[in-house]
Amino acid sequence: MELTAARRRAAGVPAWRFGLYAFCALVFLFLMAPLVVVFPISFSSSPYLQFPPPGWSLQWYVAYVEDTAWIDATIRSLKVAAATTVLSTVLGTLLAFGIVRGRYPGKEALNQFALLPLIVPVIVYSIAVYGLFAQARLIGNWHAIVLGHTVHAIPFVLIVVGAALRTYDENYELAAMSLGASRLGAIWRITLPQIRPALVSAMFLAFISSFDELVVAMFLGGSNMTLPKKMFDNIVNAIDPTIAAVSVLQIVLVTVVLIVVSKIGAGAGPSR
What is the CB-side half-sphere exposure of residue 263 using CA atoms within 13 A? Predict the structure, then answer.
């Protein structure tokens, strides 16, 4: 031990840094532990949630595929998440341009107002949206879920795209306009391709925030069962390893989307 400490001091590395690394490693392992447990359970041959599994089987994945309720909920969640991604990306990008490029009084107040969905507790937001949509008779319509998720996802787009616009050199646009392009043409052909990594990242955040959201869907969905709501009902009513199989599929989906986003973003840097 004394020799190890002497080597660390000789290398010029503080001893507290190794403790910090060890602490971070323990926190990481603690956060990843549920993933380590859920993967084996999804392949369990037991009819109950049991770890370690007594045997191995694909029956719970087969049960998920053959259950129309699970498939319908999955398709509905994908549809809602896709619509939310498109709406929030378009509206959030326009709002980011208006806040970053705009020159008008009250711009900072507008920026803070647009970020309120991140600050207000989701249960309070859901109750408020429920009261508004109930008057418009939109409760039970999947479009209502899309609108509720869009408002909640716009701040993610605003933060990511706004940060990209603040570091973007507007001289590219001026050069394009000096060569005959209009303002909108320069933004469409020059600015948006340059900040595409930020746009793709914002779309990913919007998609995940909608696909995994439960509370808003519970208030606005009615009989329209999304995948998180179906998972919640399954945990409340009948716990079986099917929920573990669905959780694994969700993790795989998010991982695939993240890999695709990273590949798209890596090939769309300013050098192009």
Answer: 6
The CATH number of 67-266 is 1.10.3720.10
Q: Are the C-beta atoms of residues 76 and 142 closer than 8 Å to each other?
A: yes
How confident is the model over 176-189, as pLDDT tens digits? Answer: 877 777 778 888 88
215 residue type, one letter: V
| Six token digits for residue 101 | 């490029």
pLDDT tens column, 3-23: 455 555 545 556 667 778 888
pTM of the predicted model as reported, rounded to 2 decimal places: 0.78
Instruction: Give the bridge partners for 44, in sequence order.
Output: 56
* Distance of alpha carbon 252 from alpha carbon 180, whole angstroms: 47
Q: Which helix (H) or strand (E) holds 91?
A: helix 68-101
- For the chain, the structural domain boundaries read 67-266
Alpha-carbon gap, residue 196 to 140, rounded angstroms = 35
